[in-house]
Amino acid sequence: MNLSRGYLLALFLIFAYLSWQLVAPFAQYVLGAILIGFVLYPLQGRLETYVSSTIAALALVLFAVIGFIVPFVIVAVAVADDVANLLQSIDPEALQLADIEDRIAAETGYEVDITEQLAGSAEQIGTIVLEQTTAWFSALTHALIGLGLMLFVLYYLLKQGDDLMTWLHEMTPLPEDVQDELYTELSEVMWAVLAGHVLIAVVQGVIAGLGLFATGVPNAAFWTFVMVILALIPLIGAFLVWGPAVGYLLLTGEPVLAVALAIYSTIIVGVSDDYLRPIVVDRYAEINPAIIILGVLGGVYAFGIMGLFFGPVILGALLAVVDVIDDNYDRLGEEAGTTET
Predict the structure, then answer these.
(1) CA distance linking residue 42 with residue 56, whole number of Å
(2) In whole angstroms, what is the distance from residue 55 CA to residue 67 CA?
(3) CA-to-CA distance for 56 and 46, rounded, in angstroms?
(4) d(C-alpha 211, C-alpha 261), whole Å
């Protein structure tokens, strides 16, 4: 490597590092924009046959707000409300503090005022809450800025998606046919994860959640959200929620509702998995369940909430690249040798 190339490489590494420092605080929102942009990109091409790319991109951004972001916010609010109700359902009087105090005094000889201790703890908690108000405001501001950034990134991904793909083709040092194979494999992996696993997990969670609502299980919105997350993980699924819900109904004297929920969840939720998954997965690349489990769990640790989607995609993309290398490695080596000669 000569001095000029080394200098350019050093500049690239420096600015790449500084650019990452700029993007890292909003990585979740950028990944969200990429995810939604990938889903909506085929619609962008169709709309551009009728209107300009700018109008098409703006329309799809509005559609993303209505179809993706607003429902997500509504679900988040509903889940937060259920969590608050769950905490408020704890009745302090049901704890029978006076009896507990008398029992402690009889056993140990020490009189303890639990109510006073709880009041003191509540004051400390109140102080902590006041101190954290600034942090909460900062987090809210960051979220609003991040959402705005996500919409801007989504808009330009849709509007200039063709230019981006052209640039990628020009910058990738591979023959056109190999690039086409590579990008096709990556696209199939992305759709396999989104349609074959995420979409089915949402459908399963919602169907199971309807059973919870119908049978009167408390905080059904929160548990529906939990079932959607669990359904993303193969071999685990929504049973970890609706199974205990059946037990809860039995313990609360509702055997008919318990049996109805068990039958509904077993048949309807099971059928949705048995029939929907083969239809969707057969259309795209099939990903091993072990890769999905590792991708989901590892992705959450590495990327946060967006890791639920990008974790399996990254592992699937690695396997797709390995397939492309296996198919074309010898030919590319021969072409490189011919070029050098």
Answers:
(1) 11
(2) 18
(3) 9
(4) 6
pLDDT at 14: 93
Helix axes 53-64, 27-47, angle to 10 degrees: 130
- Tell me the torsion sign for CA atoms 244, 245, 249, 251: positive
How far, in Å, CA of 283 to CA of 290, rounded? Answer: 20
**How does DSSP assign 293-309, residue by residue?**
HHHHHHHHHHHGGGHHH
Report which listed range, 79-93, 243-257, 266-280, is most confident: 243-257
Q: How far is CA 138 from the centre of its chain?
A: 23
Question: Among all chains, which residue has been given the structure tokens 């040092």?
Answer: 173
Tens digit of each residue's pLDDT (9 = 90 or more) over 139-169: 778 778 888 898 899 999 999 888 888 888 8
Dist CA 153 CA 159 (whole Å): 10
Mean pLDDT of 285-304: 78
